[in-house]
From TrEMBL:
Recorded topology in the membrane: Multi-pass membrane protein
Protein name stated in the entry: N-acetylneuraminate (7)9-O-acetyltransferase
One biological process term in Gene Ontology: carbohydrate metabolic process
Entry keyword annotation includes Transmembrane: yes
Highest rank taxon of the organism: Eukaryota
Residues in Cas1p 10 TM acyl transferase domain copies: 253-734
Gene name linked to the record: Casd1
Ranges of residues in domain NXPE C-terminal: 22-92
Enzyme Commission no: 2.3.1.45
Organism: Oreotrochilus melanogaster
Keyword terms, alphabetized: Acyltransferase, Glycoprotein, Golgi apparatus, Membrane, Transferase, Transmembrane, Transmembrane helix
Keyword 4Fe-4S: no
Any one cellular-component term (Gene Ontology): Golgi membrane
Reaction(s) catalysed by this chain's protein: CMP-N-acetyl-beta-neuraminate + acetyl-CoA = CMP-N-acetyl-7-O-acetyl-beta-neuraminate + CoA; a ganglioside GD3 (d18:1(4E)) + acetyl-CoA = a ganglioside Ac-O-7-GD3(d18:1(4E)) + CoA; CMP-N-acetyl-beta-neuraminate + acetyl-CoA = CMP-N-acetyl-9-O-acetyl-beta-neuraminate + CoA
Length: 756
């Protein structure tokens, strides 16, 4: 538990991740773009007052607003900057010493007739040390001067943000002869005096001058790269400017990946109602437990007073009522959702930025692959893509995706492209699995549809309510939900063509192929009609499901990125089941899928195709260009993997139970990671145990996996209650669900209006 102020942590502590990435002690720092900096500072006046080191910070700060600014002009004079498009004024005022002149300037801002700057950044000391040759008298005078300035700064802090920048250490070996008197010992003495005086001045005041001491820590790591031993290298100055921007702008802009200086978001109306619901569920379940316990005591064996013998009631297994199971599930879910909220909405636990290194990604990958091999078992059946094999496939892919997310590997393009194939493979399985079910079973009933939709969406709907996030935020679930409905509509509309019907007449196979061609044509047209696509999903209330940040572009991007792979999965299922029906493939235990010659040729082609894709993905230089090709070529590596995994009989007959176990809860793992493994909506890492990164990952991972497994069981239990097989009961439940979502929609409209 970190009970302190994240702003103070941002200004005073942290460490480097690698050489250039600064990590504050307890929170995440957002990297501001020029447009964001302008939006934050619109109509603002910022003043930097001090010596050459403050001038450096001034230039780094204004480059966040306009990167084209050059460091030119009078170095020992005032430097103005103005961005007229956003009405931003940033001034540097040359006051190299804390003296009467600086005091007079600061005092002028405290007088009523003068407009006060919104942000004041001040600091000076090295000139006093240099001019007075490091004398003790100069330090005494510095203390007197800063004591006289402190009350004025406190007065300004009531209406402005005031920062006092402590002096950075110097690299004494590199200092020129006329700066040799500036020693780290002297700098520490001046800093100590400034901190003591400013803190004592603010002790009796509600407002306070913020001491910018983090620059010292940054300088300790980077001052040896200085060109003169006194001034910081550019990367360190930029870090200081970014920290300053985070301190002021995070509470205004509220970036997702900038948890420093952000207040805890207030509870929404829907969140309050959810809290009440889960509280009532817990109370209701406790009441049922007490009633059952009381009944159990009454039915306990008792002594017959007349005969002196003990009467023993017949043993029976207690029947758990539907209400009890329902309340039990919601009770557990309520406790789990409390943990979710505390992890990623309450400012209770620390959060850190991700930092990618090759070792942080590839070492865990090797580790889990070795573990997976150790848990090899024989499959119950040896068909292509049997249940154990698909669970295994989902499992290892999910583990790789989790490592990809926590390590921040999206910054490394070859890894990103391979992960895109894994996401495509999930969608391929969606096409393959649902097509196979409808084709073989011919079951287009409402029960099947409701079961699938409930299992896919239950957790996400609950998280949308509890975590106050739009449905599209959990993009994968909307994606598989929409594709499931597309598969269902394609096969369910007239004429319904299933395997049983097609076996009687081969022409039905051509009818199904015609349906698939129509589906492919629709996908192709939509993929090149962004305007039409966005219009379809922008209609209210559909827009409530697919909008993110006020538009449906994210949904368009996600859909387009893997637009063909579900069709590829359906087509593969059709071809495979047709070959299987005509006994053109051998699926016996230990038998190759085809004749030895054909199997060897296909295996060779598959390995070459698999490696060719990897070489192409690893040579990608531009993410946008590679994403354009990805929808068409991702199927190459997916099909290659399927053939490599299934052609050899021995390989097809075994599976990893380790990966298969994770595969059974892969959807829950993918969704839960957003808030209780990662942090700040996947932008950072949750820190339960500060200072011990590896131990923290072990503990948070254990909790995360247990929670995902528990939610999977809760979903299965509730699916049996909410989606019964009886059609009349199911219809009533659907009406209740429709009412629930109507109410949710109404509350969300009220909530949006209150926000605006």
């Amino acid at each position: 538990f970190k009970g302190g102020d994240t702003c103070e942590d941002l200004l005073s502590s942290g460490r480097f991740l690698g050489e250039k990435v600064w990590q504050p002690h307890s929170c995440m720092m957002h990297k501001y773009k020029n447009s964001e900096a302008k939006n934050c500072l619109i109509d603002k006046h910022v003043v930097f007052i001090g010596d050459s080191r403050i001038r450096q910070l001034f230039y780094s700060f204004i480059k966040l607003i306009n990167p084209q600014v050059k460091e030119e002009g009078n170095k020992h004079g005032n430097i103005p900057f103005e961005d007229k498009s956003a009405s931003i004024k940033v001034d540097f005022l040359w006051y190299p010493e804390v003296n009467g002149s600086m005091r007079q300037r600061i005092k002028s801002w405290t007088e009523g007739s003068v407009a006060k700057p919104h942000i004041i950044v001040a600091g000076a000391a090295t000139w006093s040390i240099k001019i007075h040759n490091g004398s003790n008298e100069a330090l005494t005078q510095y203390k007197i001067n800063i004591t006289s300035i402190a009350p004025l700064l406190e007065k300004l802090a009531k209406s402005s943000d005031v920062y006092w920048v402590l002096q950075d250490p110097v690299y004494e070996e590199m200092l020129s002869e006329n700066r040799k008197m500036i020693t780290n010992e002297k700098i520490d003495a001046y800093n100590e005096a400034a901190v003591r005086i400013l803190n004592s001045s603010s002790r009796n005041s509600k407002t306070k001058v913020k001491v910018f001491s983090v620059s010292k820590l940054i300088a300790q790591e980077t001052i040896m790269k200085s060109t003169d031993g006194l001034h910081l290298p550019e990367s360190s100055r930029d870090t200081n400017a970014m920290i300053l921007m985070n301190v002021y702008c995070n509470k205004i802009m509220k970036p997702i990946d900038g948890s420093c200086c952000q207040p805890q978001p207030p509870l929404t109306l829907i969140q309050k109602l959810a809290f009440c619901f889960f509280t009532l569920s817990i109370i209701g379940y406790l009441i049922i437990i007490l009633i059952n316990r009381n009944n159990f005591r009454k039915n306990k064996s008792c002594t017959d007073l007349e005969s002196g013998e003990e009467k023993k009631p017949a043993l029976s297994v207690p029947n758990v009522s539907t209400l009890e199971m329902l309340l039990h599930s919601f009770c557990k879910l309520g406790l789990i959702m409390t943990y979710f909220y505390l992890c990623d909405r309450a400012n209770l636990f620390m959060k850190e930025n991700k930092f990618y290194t090759h070792s942080s990604f590839f070492i865990p990958i090797i580790y889990i692959l070795v573990l997976g091999v150790f848990y090899t078992e024989n499959t119950k059946e040896t068909k292509v893509l049997n249940r154990e094999q698909t669970d295994e496939w989902k499992g290892w892919m999910q583990l790789v995706i989790l490592i990809y997310h926590i390590s921040g590997a999206s910054t490394f393009l070859p890894v990103y492209m391979h992960i895109r194939v894994l996401v495509a493979a999930y969608l391929f399985q969606t096409g393959y699995g649902h097509f196979s079910y409808f084709w073989i079973k011919g079951d287009f009933g409402v029960y099947r549809v409701c079961q699938v939709l409930f299992r896919l969406n239950f957790l996400v709907v609950v998280l949308c309510i509890v975590m106050d996030r739009p449905y599209q935020f959990y993009y994968f679930v909307p994606l598989v939900t929409v594709w499931f409905m597309i598969i269902y509509a394609t096969l369910a509309i007239w004429p319904q063509i299933v395997q049983k019907k097609a076996n009687g007449n081969c022409l039905w196979h051509f009818g199904l192929l015609l349906k698939l061609i129509c589906l492919l044509t629709c996908i192709y047209i939509l993929s090149y009609s962004q305007g039409a696509f966005e219009k379809v999903f922008s209609f209210w209330p559909l827009s409530k499901c697919f909008e993110l940040n006020g538009n449906v572009y994210e949904w368009w991007f996600r859909w387009k990125l893997d637009r063909y792979v579900v069709f590829h999965g359906m087509l593969f299922a059709f071809i495979y089941l047709a070959l299987q029906k005509r006994q053109m493939i051998s699926e016996g235990k230990g038998d190759p899928l085809f004749s030895n010659r054909v199997s060897n040729v296909l295996l060779f082609i598959s390995i070459v195709s698999f490696l060719s894709y990897s070489i192409w993905a690893s040579s990608c230089k531009n993410k946008t260009e590679c994403n354009e090709l990805h929808p068409s070529v991702s199927v190459v590596q997916i099909l290659a993997f399927i053939l490599i995994r299934n052609i050899p009989g021995y390989v097809r007959s075994v599976y990893s139970s380790f990966f298969a176990w994770f595969g059974k809860i892969s959807l829950e793992l993918f969704i839960c990671q957003y808030h209780i493994w990662l942090a700040a909506d996947t932008k950072g890492i949750l820190v339960l145990i500060p200072g011990y990164p590896m131990f923290n990952v072990l503990v948070s991972t254990f909790i995360f996996v247990c929670v995902a497994h528990e939610i999977s069981q809760i979903t299965n239990d509730l699916a049996q209650i909410v989606v019964p097989k009886d059609n009349s009961t199911l219809l009533k439940r659907l009406l209740c669900i429709a009412g629930f979502f109507s109410g949710l929609l109404l509350f969300s409209v009220v909530q949006d209006q209150s926000r605006h």
